[in-house]
Amino acid sequence: MHDAPGPTPAPPADWAEINRANWDERVPVHVGGKFYDLPGFVAGADTLLDFELAEVGEVTGKQLLHLQCHLGLDTLSWARRGARVTGLDFSAPAVAEAAKLAERIGADTARFVVSDVYAAAEALAGERFDVVYTGRGALPWLPDLARWARTVAALLRPGGFLYLAEFHPLADLVEEDPGVLVEDYFQRAPQLVEDSGSYADQDAALASSRTVQWQHGLGDVVSALAAAGLRLEFLHEHAHGHFRLPAGPRLPLVYSLRAVRPS
Predict the structure, then answer these.
(1) Is 5 domain-assigned?
(2) Which of 82, 173, 256, 261 has CB atoms 3.0–4.6 Å from 60's, for a disulfide?
(3) DSSP alpha helices (H): ranges in the chain?
């Protein structure tokens, strides 16, 4: 029997400002670098994974909201499949670049909004959506999953669903080489990270190098959604993701879930 995690400690009061400064500064690095390959995307490249497309299903004509959209590549990949998309992010420079990208590819049904996730319902004036989508690498930037889940529920129309594809919390605790568990799965305290680079360019020199991040277990995520009144349809674990471990027994690297707001 495992010990249940205790209450999540309070984050630093300025956690959002710290993280926003870091993400604002990442934007030109990501726009100009090879990791996101914006020219390739404009030429038709897709950023969605095969299981995301299968699990979300047909989106033509649906209203889809992408929370924490960053540069909007995933958002616009859904737009290319016929969804009427809204991308939301707390970084104004990222949203500006996403809007430029939408114009470059002719996605005239796409729009982008600057807002903190927790203020999304207010920023969108109570609008509701058929699909709320959140992609990989989003949840570790949020301290309060219960509040996140309530926000998602408020953004969904009855019968609409949340689709989340996220890096698996267990895989995020494994050191890629030699592939061993190096952190505590039940750690819930805010993690103060100092890194002058970006995952997209480790050599980038960022002046705003501090971030605040949180570790959330699968049970934390599912329980928060249930408490917000959403009904879980599935939770899947996937053996492919953002890195490869050495040959041997496998770990889940990504998980995906769909949770419906009852009619």
Answers:
(1) no
(2) 82
(3) 15-32, 38-42, 50-56, 73-79, 92-105, 120-123, 145-155, 218-227
Tokens of 86: 């809204």
pLDDT tier for residue 2 given thresholds of 50, 70 and 90: very low
Q: What would the pLDDT profile of 95-114 be if each residue is shown by its tens digit?
A: 999 999 999 999 999 999 99
Q: How far apart are the first and last CA of the chain?
A: 37
| Amino acid of residue 231 | R
* Sequence-ordered strand ranges (E) for the chain: 63-67, 84-89, 111-114, 129-134, 156-167, 174-175, 180-181, 191-194, 210-213, 231-238, 254-260
Note the pLDDT tens digit of each residue in 66-92. Answer: 999 999 999 999 999 999 999 999 999
> Whole domain around residue 65: which residue ranges?
15-260
Amino acid at 161: F
For strand 180-181 and strand 191-194, is the pairing parallel, antiparallel, or unpaired?
Answer: unpaired
* Domain-located, residue 107: yes
Q: How many domains does the chain have?
A: 1
CB-based contact 94:27 (threshold 8 Å) = yes
140 in any annotated domain: yes
- The token duo for 114 is 């600057």
Tokens at residue 52, please? Answer: 């995301």
Q: What is the pLDDT of residues 3-39, one digit of tens each?
A: 555 555 677 789 999 999 999 999 999 999 899 999 9
- Does residue 10 fall inside a structural domain? no
Would you state the structure tokens that stand for residue 85, as one six-digit string?
């998309």
* Tally of CB atoms within 10 A around 220: 18
pTM of the model: 0.91
Quote the CA–CA distance of 213 and 118 in Å, as a whole number: 16
How sure is the predictor about 203, in pLDDT bands with cuts at 50, 70 and 90? confident
